[in-house]
Amino acid sequence: MTNRIKDLREAFSLTQEQLGEMLGVRKAAVAKYESGTVENLKRSTVEKMADIFKVTPAFIMGWSDNPQELKADELRLLELFGKLNSLGKKEAIKRVAELSVISVYNSAIINTKELIAAHDGGASPQEMNADLLNALEILKRSDKNDL
User: Fold this and answer.
1) Which residue in 14, 24, 47, 93 has the fewest CB atoms around it within 10 Å?
2) Average confidence (pLDDT) over 113-141
3) What is the chain's alpha carbon radius of gyration, rounded to the nearest angstrom?
4) H-assigned helices in the chain
């Protein structure tokens, strides 16, 4: 737990004093959390830390190695991925990489009207060309990594 708090604080470029202010405690308290002097953190403090660092309280406490809880669709993806052999896993990674650069499937598209329009052929030829070139680049990189 102690290393996690310090690692997260440093990853967010926060000083002990800054984190303390955010948590409503003094710098000395943060130093004690990081050194392991305080073993029983208040639940409210752990929850505040989890909110600040965008991780689960279980991750802060060292009870889980997963910094974030997985959503149902992410769990389903992991379940299906686990059923694949090594060749299938490589292929799945390659295909997800391809999809991730195509604007229709990329999470950068928030507006559902744009998404529907893209599925209906609303993407311009330039956008489609750019998506295809990005996908080809990923394929080239993944092929090189497979060698």
Assistant:
1) 24
2) 61
3) 22
4) 2-11, 16-23, 27-35, 43-53, 57-61, 72-82, 86-100, 112-119, 125-146
13 sits in the region (left: phi over 0; alpha: psi -120 to 50; else beta) called left
Q: What's residue 110's pLDDT? A: 46
Q: In which residue ranges of the chain is CATH 1.10.260.40 found?
A: 2-61
Residue 120 exposed, middle or buried by CB count within 10 Å (0-12, 13-18, 19+): exposed
- Residue tagged 């660092």 (tokens): 53
Is 77 within 8 Å of 71 (Cβ atoms)? no
Under 8 Å between Cβ of 12 and 52? yes
pTM: predicted TM-score of the whole model, two decimal places: 0.50
pLDDT in tens, 86-99: 999 999 999 988 88
